[in-house]
Amino acid sequence: MLKGFSLAGSNLRYYRKPTRKKKMTGMSVIVVGAGIIGLSVAFEALQCGATVTIVDRDPEGDKASYGNAGGIAVTEVLPASVPGLWKKVPYWLLDPLGPLALRIGHAPHMVPWLWSFARVGSGSDVARISEALASINSRVYDDLVPLFNKVGLAGDLFRKGALTVYETEDGILREKHEWNAKRALGVEVQELSARDVRDMEPALGPIVKSGVFTPQWSHITDPKKVVDVLRTWLAANGAKILRGQVDRVFLTSDGTAVALNGGTTLTATKVVIAAGAWSAQLAEQLGDRMLLESERGYNTTIAAPGVTLEREVIFADRKFVATPLSVGLRIGGAAEFGGLQSPPNFRRSKALVKLAKRYLPGLNEEGGVEWSGHRPATPDSLPVIGRSSLSPHIIYAFGHGHLGLTQGPSTGKIVGDLLFDRAPGLDLSPFSATRFSVRKGKRNDSPDLFLH
Ligand SMILES: Cc1cc2nc3c(=O)[nH]c(=O)nc-3n(C[C@H](O)[C@H](O)[C@H](O)COP(=O)(O)OP(=O)(O)OC[C@H]3O[C@@H](n4cnc5c(N)ncnc54)[C@H](O)[C@@H]3O)c2cc1C
User: Fold this and answer.
1) Which among 216, 375, 395 is the best mutation to test ligand 1's pocket, defined by most ligand atoms within 8 Å of the CB?
2) Ligand 1 nearest-atom number relative to CA 59
3) Which residue has the CA at smallest separation from atom 18 of ligand 1?
4) Which of 369, 334, 337, 336 has the alpha carbon at shortest distance from 351?
5) Residue with CA at minimum distance from ligand 1 atom 20
6) Where are the beta strands (DSSP E) in 131-234?
7) What CA–CA distance (Å, rounded) separates 371 from 252?
8) CB within 6 Å of ligand 1 — which residues?
9) From CA 127, how far away is CA 181, in angstroms rounded?
10) Which atom of ligand 1 is found nearest the CA of 70?
């Protein structure tokens, strides 16, 4: 058994704590979206003294934040598009239940996104993006732990690291560029033999030949519990939570407003758009072109899996994960690009359980609950966090892809800084809304749109 791993906080570099924090009142904020990002923004705005209204078409309902894998994946500091990825993509696409799928009917809509994704992986952008990801991920525990403590989730975070496992002894060597790049950004990496791996996770079968332990990673009890507890806490502490579909965000003579489907208009000093994979529609009405796609993921949660894992396990050769949640063992992954309207294909969930059985021979496959959700994916794997180009009073917080749970509380803090005109402790230019293009010519036709 390997002993002595430091499970201390993620000491990744880059984050500078802001030096000032002032409590302000008199500001009202509408947050569009009650996923982990919107709720985290609402938490911070409320803490800073704002009057907060959260609007969601289904505040308690299913969403990416409710069914994800539950990993606090602070060590994921590389973009999805890295040099060499394109050699693997054709094989993945040819496998009907492989880790990557592109629905043919949606492909023409995705050309600009795919082009941008390909460009990211072909050049020096990788280093720049990785530094930006590290700048957020290095502050995650500073932001997440106080939020969890405050709302009653202190016991729901397990700082046990994660285990990446390979089917070959030289698995880590094949990915050495990625691991070296992570090390250079402050990620702690421990190489393990097959025996070390099984000492840590005895449920893993002989197919596993080597592994890597990343102690800074952690996981939570249950993502649904986290959003439920946070939403309930916000409601109990003064936030208004409204059910409604936001059709339009616009400026008024003295602030901002959102128009709901059905005719209601709500006004506030500032609006934050945190509508996950649906955010692009609202941003584009404001003139900001977004490259944002739904990257559908799948999983199955087995309440009585018959095996025990201590920590999240990442199956690197097959691109899926298993997390021991309080609701059962959650086995999931896959990246399916088919737009927001296409129906889920739950054969992917089933295929992942079959794969998991190869690694976890004692796995009981029966009784699993299948789920699927839309990751809000940008081509450069960076979220959009910043002011809209139309007005500093409309702020974006979406596009967190695979890392929304991880980066939610930090995004909330950063948006809090923007709302209250404080300097955030990191360079926000890589997250800018304008990085995908200059402003579109077509703008929202509201007559009072350009007052600010
Ligand atoms: C299979 C899978 C596994 C994942 N695993 C992890 C993980 O281990 N760790 C991690 O950090 N991240 C993980 N993620 C990613 C993470 O779940 C997402 O990045 C995150 O949940 C996005 O949160 P969000 O608040 O932006 O969006 P969502 O959770 O999708 O919430 C958006 C909300 O906006 C509302 N909305 C949208 N449009 C409107 C509108 N016009 N009017 C009103 N309401 C609107 C929706 O109803 C929804 O409630 C995973 C995702 C998937 C799919």
Assistant:
1) 375
2) 49
3) 404
4) 334
5) 404
6) 157-158, 162-166, 190-193, 210-214, 218-220
7) 41
8) 32-38, 55-58, 63-65, 68-71, 73, 245-246, 274-278, 297, 299, 332, 373, 375-376, 398, 400-406
9) 8
10) 8
Task: Report the 10 Å Cβ neighbour count for 149.
Answer: 12
> What pLDDT was estimated at residue 16?
52
Most distant CA pair in the chain: distance in Å? 68
The two tokens of residue 105 are: 């009917």
Residue nearest to atom 39 of ligand 1 (CA): 275
Assess contact for 13 and 373: CB atoms under 8 A.
Answer: no
What is the 350 CA–ligand 1 centroid distance (Å)? 22
Tell the CATH superfamily of the 28-436 domain. Answer: FAD/NAD(P)-binding domain (3.50.50.60)
442-447-448-452 Cα dihedral, nearest 10 degrees: 40
Atom of ligand 1 nearest to the CA of 400: 19
pLDDT, residue 173, reads 87
CB atoms within 10 A of CB 438: 10
Ranges of residues in the chain with a pLDDT under 50 are 1-11, 13, 15, 19-22, 438-452
3-state secondary structure 126-137: HHHHHHHHHHHH
Terminal-to-terminal C-alpha distance of the chain: 62
Q: Is-contact 137 75, C-beta < 8 A?
A: yes
* CA separation for the pair 26, 233 (Å, rounded): 21
321 close to 299: Cβ distance less than 8 angstroms: no
Cβ pair 169, 209 in contact under 8 A: yes
Quick check: 275 and 304 in contact, CB under 8 A? no
DSSP character for 123?
S
Q: What is the rounded CA–CA span in Å between residue 30 and residue 239?
A: 10
At residue 52, what is the residue type?
V
| Residue in 44, 59, 40 with CA at minimum distance from that of residue 242 | 59
Q: Relative to the CA of 374, which ligand 1 atom is closest?
A: 53
Q: Which residues have a Cβ under 8 Å from the Cβ of 445 and sit 6 or more positions away?
A: none
Q: Considering Cα of 393, then 405, then 428, then 390, what sign does the dihedral take? A: negative
Residue 36: name the closest of 402, 342, 388 by CA.
402
